[in-house]
Write a structure and sequence with these properties.
Blueprint (H helix, E strand, L loop, with lengths): L1 H6 L1 H12 L11 H4 L1 E5 L2 E4 H17 L9 H24 L6 H12 L5 H10 L4 H26 L3 H10 L5 E2 L2 E10 L8 H17 L4 H8 L10 E6 L5 H11 L11 E2 L3 E11 L2 E2 L2 H30 L3 E3 L4
Antiparallel strand pairs: 1-2, 1-9, 3-8, 4-5, 4-7, 6-7
Length: 334
């Protein structure tokens, strides 16, 4: 869990800053409990409701990135949020003292990136209302967010750039990290459990799936059959799921499919495989063995990732140094 925060320090600093920049008047309609100050950094207050909002925004980002944590890890998550909030407040104070200004075009882009996640302007405004923020207040938040991000970029981008030689050295010393696991190009036909079939939904779906399998094994084209019989959106692509590797499919829902498809040969058609959605008929079109990716294939991504990690580490280190001379009052434990 803590590793997640170390690897995304820029995100955490930015999200916590976004909440720290909300004006205090925004808390007027909240209960006394949520309006209490839980943290003070160099005289700058941070409230309980702001901390809650920072946690919500960060969890939302984690969810969209596919990162999750267990309930037992919540205390560590909140502790990490508290530390990230302190870094955010300190870096904002430093940026403001350095005379950093927000680029209006970037502010507009930031607001739009948030607004477009809602189906309508009305839904967007209701979303802000749920966060206890007006449009005007959110624009001020965006201005401070952009200002802080630009400050971090100008300060650390020139220092964090990883050279091709450095990336090559890392690649040569960690080749075991650069294997592409076995991949299978698969297609499927889904026969869903039908609610209207009630207690016989399982039985009827299985009968239908077995009938389709018989047709396929007599020579019917799989893609054509998928377009005609499948209840999955992939029917538009003839059932094509593209190349998948172990772990790509959601374990709780489609683990049985993964176990079957990686045991099949090219050209093979499976018997019906049950999942929570219904019965799947699988077809393997191609297989790629586990392969070491060449340096040139991953060079650009590796340099970008190493640069991102170096920058995150520098920001964490810088925040730690700022904390050494800061006046920090933790008025509550997270």
């Amino acid at each position: 869990m803590i590793g997640f925060f170390k690897g995304t320090a820029i995100l955490c600093v930015s999200l916590c800053f976004l909440c720290a920049s909300l004006p205090a008047a925004c808390a007027d309609d909240l209960t006394e409990d949520y309006s209490r100050v839980v943290l003070r950094v160099n005289g700058m207050d941070f409230h309980k409701w702001e901390m809650n909002l920072a946690e919500i925004l960060t969890q939302d980002h984690m969810f969209r990135e596919g990162a999750f944590f267990r309930p037992s890890e919540i205390p560590a998550f909140r502790q990490a949020m508290m530390e990230s909030t302190i870094w955010a407040m300190l870096i904002y104070q430093e940026a403001r003292a350095a005379g950093e200004k927000a680029d209006p075009a970037k502010v507009d882009e930031f607001i739009w990136s948030f607004q477009k996640r809602f189906p309508s302007l009305e839904a967007y405004e209701k979303g802000l209302e749920a966060l206890h923020v007006t449009s005007e207040q959110f624009r001020r938040i965006a201005e401070r967010y952009v200002m802080t991000q630009d400050y971090l970029d100008r300060k650390f981008d020139p220092l964090s750039k990883v050279s091709e030689a450095e990336a090559r050295e890392y690649y040569d010393g960690h080749r075991e990290n650069f294997y592409q696991e076995e991949m299978v190009r698969a297609s499927h036909i889904l026969v869903e459990f039908k609610e209207e079939d009630g207690d016989r939904a399982d039985e009827k779906a299985l009968i239908t799936a077995k009938r389709i399998v018989r047709k396929l094994k007599k020579g019917e084209n799989f893609a054509a059959a998928a377009r005609e019989y499948s209840d999955c959106e992939s029917k538009k692509r003839g059932g094509d799921l593209g190349y998948i590797q172990k772990g790509d499919l959601p374990k709780a829902q489609l683990k049985p499919l993964e176990e079957v498809v990686f045991g099949m040969e090219v050209g093979e058609i499976s018997e019906p495989v049950e999942s929570v959605f219904g019965y799947h008929i699988l077809y393997v079109e191609d297989k790629k063995p586990r392969t070491l990716l060449g340096f040139d294939e991953i060079k650009d991504k590796l340099i970008a990732k190493m640069t991102e990690d170096r920058k995150a580490a520098m920001i964490l280190d810088h925040g730690t140094k700022l904390k050494e001379t800061a006046r920090i009052e933790r008025l509550e434990e997270p």
